[in-house]
Design goal:
Residues 28-129, 152-253 form the WSC domain. By secondary structure, this protein is α+β, with helices and mostly antiparallel strands. The chain has helices at residues 2-25, 56-65, 136-144, 180-189, 262-267, and strands at residues 33-36, 46-50, 70-74, 78-82, 108-109, 112-116, 122-127, 147-148, 158-160, 170-174, 194-198, 202-206, 232-233, 236-240, 246-251, 269-270. It contains 5 helices and 16 strands. A hairpin with a 3-residue loop joins strand 3 (70-74) and strand 4. The protein is elongated, with a radius of gyration of 25 Å.
C-alpha cells in the first residue's frame, strides 16, 4: 500500500509539473504599451523588417537577435528596435502610465490578425525578454543589417537625365500603374541600390549615378531644384515621378534587397534612345529616402 501511495504521489507531481510547464509555455505576452511615433522623431531608431507576414513574436525575436531591449510595431507590418524610447515618445517609458490610450494602436498584424501591431504613427512597444537578447558577438552582423529610419514623406532629390547619357542604366518598367514603392520594389528585386523615376511612368535602376548625373556624389547637395521634377506618378497622382529628362532618385533600403531575384535582374533592359535627344547638363546628388 505505501508503494502504491508513492506511485500515486509521484503521478500527481508529474502531472502538476507538466501542467505548469504547458501553462508557462503558452502564457501570453504582456500587453504592449501604445506610443505616438513619427519618422522624423522616431520612438525607436532602427527598422528591422517590413513584411506581409509580420507578427509580434517575430519582431521581438528580430530585435533580440540584434541585441536590442525594446521592440515596436507600427502600420501593421513594420518592426522597429532600440534600447530607449526617443523622439515623440521620449517623455514616456514602458510602464510609466503616460502612454496614449491602447485603442489608438488598432492595426492588426499582417501576419497574425489576432494581434495588434501599432497603427498610423502609433507604436506598440514590447520589452524584449533578457534571455533572448544576443551577446555582442552573436548580434553584430544582425545589427549591422538594420536600417536607420528615414522619413517616407521627404521629397526625392531631382536630377538631370537623358537616354544617351543616362543617370541610371537599366529600365525596369514603363507602366500606367507606376508608383514610387513599385519602382523601389522592382530595383530591390534586381538587387540594385538606386531607383529612379522619370516621365511619370518609367522606373530605372542602378548602383551609382552616371552620365549626366555623374559630376556629383551622394550628399554633395548639388541636386536640381525640386520643382524641376514635376510629373505625377501614373499610378499615384499624389506623388512625383520625375519629369521630362528629370529623374526622382531614391536609395533602395538594404533590407528590401534581401529578396534578390537573379532572373528578374537579368530581365532588365539596357537603356537606349528611341530618337535623337539633347543631352542635358546638370550637377545632381542622391540621398536615402523610402516612401510607404
Amino acid at each position: 500500500m505505501p508503494f502504491i501511495s508513492v506511485i500515486f504521489a509521484l503521478g500527481l507531481i508529474t502531472s502538476f509539473l507538466a501542467t505548469a510547464t504547458a501553462t508557462n509555455a503558452s502564457a501570453p505576452i504582456a500587453a504592449a504599451t501604445c506610443y505616438v511615433d513619427s519618422c522624423d522623431k522616431p520612438s525607436l531608431p532602427f527598422l528591422a523588417s517590413k513584411t506581409p507576414s509580420q507578427t509580434v513574436l517575430g519582431c521581438i525575436a528580430e530585435c533580440g537577435a540584434a541585441g536590442f531591449k525594446l521592440a515596436g510595431l507600427s502600420w501593421g507590418n513594420e518592426c522597429f528596435c532600440g534600447n530607449d524610447l526617443g523622439g515623440t515618445a521620449a517623455s514616456n517609458v514602458p510602464g510609466s502610465g503616460l502612454a496614449i490610450p491602447q485603442t489608438e494602436c488598432n492595426m492588426p498584424c499582417t501576419g497574425d490578425a489576432s494581434s495588434i501591431c501599432g497603427g498610423e504613427f502609433r507604436l506598440s512597444v514590447y520589452t524584449v525578454p533578457a534571455s533572448t537578447i544576443k551577446t555582442h558577438t552573436a548580434r553584430s552582423n544582425v545589427r549591422r543589417s538594420l536600417e536607420k529610419r528615414t522619413c517616407p514623406g521627404a521629397p526625392a532629390p531631382c536630377y538631370v537625365d537623358s537616354c544617351d547619357n543616362p543617370a541610371l542604366p537599366f529600365l525596369s518598367s514603363k507602366s500606367p500603374l507606376q508608383t514610387v514603392p513599385r519602382c523601389i520594389a522592382e530595383c530591390a528585386a534586381a538587387n540594385y541600390k538606386l531607383a529612379g523615376l522619370s516621365w511619370g511612368n518609367e522606373c530605372f535602376c542602378g548602383n551609382e549615378l552616371a552620365g549626366t548625373a555623374a559630376l556629383t556624389t551622394p550628399g554633395s547637395g548639388l541636386a536640381l531644384p525640386q520643382t524641376e521634377c514635376n510629373m505625377p506618378c501614373a499610378g499615384d497622382g499624389g506623388t512625383i515621378c520625375g519629369g521630362g529628362f528629370r529623374l526622382s532618385l531614391y536609395t533602395v533600403p538594404a533590407h528590401a534587397r534581401r529578396n534578390y531575384r537573379p532572373n528578374f535582374r537579368r530581365s532588365l533592359q539596357k537603356r537606349t534612345c528611341p530618337s535623337s535627344t539633347s543631352t542635358l547638363i546638370g550637377k545632381p546628388t542622391v540621398s536615402a529616402v523610402w516612401r510607404r
